[in-house]
Amino acid sequence: MPTTYCQQRPFSLGLVINPYAGIGGALALKGSDGADIRAQALAQGAIPKANEKTKVALHQLLDYQANIVIKTAAGQMGAQCAESLGFVTEICYTPPHDQTEATDTQAAVDILIEQGVDCILFAGGDGTARNICEQVPDHIPVLGVPAGCKIHSGVYAITPRAAGCVIADMVLGKLVTVRSAEVRDIDESAFREGKVIAKHFGELSVPAQLQYVQSVKMGGKESDELVLADLAAYVDELRDEHDDCSWVIGSGSTIDFMMNEWGMTNTLLGVDVITAQGEMLSDITAPELLEHVQMNPAKLLITLIGGQGHIFGRGNQQLSPEVIRSIGYDNIVIVATKTKLHHLDGRPLICDTSDPQLDAELCGYMEVITGYNDKVLYPVGIEYTAKGKPTA
After folding, report:
1. Which site among 77, 180, 271, 292 is 20 to 30 Å from 70 CA-CA?
2. Is residue 235 domain-shared with residue 297, that is, in the same domain?
């Protein structure tokens, strides 16, 4: 039997820089929204600083360059900055004009989303955050490098250096909390008249450096039973929110505890389904499951199986590649305690679905629910043989 190890693809970092962010600040122009304001600032000798601030963030990642691919837009929208520091850089978008607009930010972000980046790092102010918020779905983490005149949104790191430190934690596979942060922007015209009118424009999922303080602790450690009860309560609320879906329930002791909390009997080493009508389909087979999820919208609830961190391929073979694809990536709900994740010692979660292409598609970072309204980002890898080829 060949020995195995876990190998991840390089961390895919989407980078978008608003080159003119903050350009009007030093000249008391109260922002940089609008081509006329940018032109006025440049005419008065304003020096764009967004790229320099982004360099400060990326400097925190220099030691990990071999594990990072930066996908970005051409020129001052990202490529120039990333390439100057020696990062492997893929240009995904080229703006049609020298002076970029909000539409360029949005077009670049759309392509980064299509390319499946693990996280989007952007430099700008509240206007840039607002543009990005209109494009990015909830499951993609986004973090801002503060570079604008207006920083009222909660999606920014405290400093450019802090932004780089958070991304470094993600690259290193540390537990990184994901929180929902508000995007706010003010009316610049009113601001120039001395009026601060801030509006809520939406929310983004933001990675934050994890402070490992569990809300329920005992003796300095997680009390597993209480944490599991928190998990059960939180996922039960999710079930109520998505009561039009069937819930496919994976195997494992964590899931077993949660099902018991809900007053249901779980197949410990099998897969069950709770239909939208509340019917329980116990120990369902792969063909039966595929037929069900092809006919009904579904969420998939799974946890780590075994000490190596398998989420697919151990104890849940009923979750065939066809079933997983039918359910959809965005409908996979992973639960685990932080204690269990720490026991992996930084190793990624493993997908071993017997479909190498699907395993590769699932690689990257996924949200893991670790408590009541508490989530972390955790890397997902592939099981490989000693020769570096996927196992069958």
Report:
1. 180
2. yes
> Residue 36's pLDDT is what?
60
Does one domain contain both 115 and 197? yes
Last residue of a domain, one of 209, 236, 264: 209
Is residue 235, in this structure, part of any structural domain at all?
yes
Q: What's the confidence (pLDDT) of residue 45? A: 52
Do 224 and 189 belong together in one domain? Answer: no
Range(s) of the domain holding residue 106: 4-209
Q: How many CA atoms lie within 13 A of 248 on its CB side?
A: 31
Contacts made by residues 39-46, CB under 8 angstroms, sequence distance 24+: 39/99
Asked if residue 377 belongs to a domain, the reply is yes
Per-residue pLDDT for 24 more than 70? no
Phi-psi region of 100 (alpha: psi -120 to 50; beta: other; left: phi over 0): beta
Q: What is the CATH number of the domain that holds 76?
A: 3.40.50
- CA-nearest of 316, 16, 24 to 189 is 24
Residues 186, 241 within the same domain: no
Number of domains in the chain: 2
131-168 confidence digits (pLDDT tens)? 999 999 988 999 999 887 667 788 888 778 888 999 99
* C-alpha 321 chain-centroid distance: 23
Tokens of 97: 């004009």
Which amino acid is present at 143? L
Give the span between the Cα atoms of 40 and 247, in whole angstroms: 56
Among 336, 332, 317, 114, which Cα is nearest to 222's?
336
Output the pTM of the full model. Answer: 0.66
What is the arithmetic mean of pLDDT over 362-386?
79
pLDDT digit string (tens) for 165-189? 999 999 988 888 888 888 887 655 5
Q: What angle do CA 104, 108, 111 make, to 5 degrees?
A: 145
| Domain stops at, among 209, 225, 240 | 209
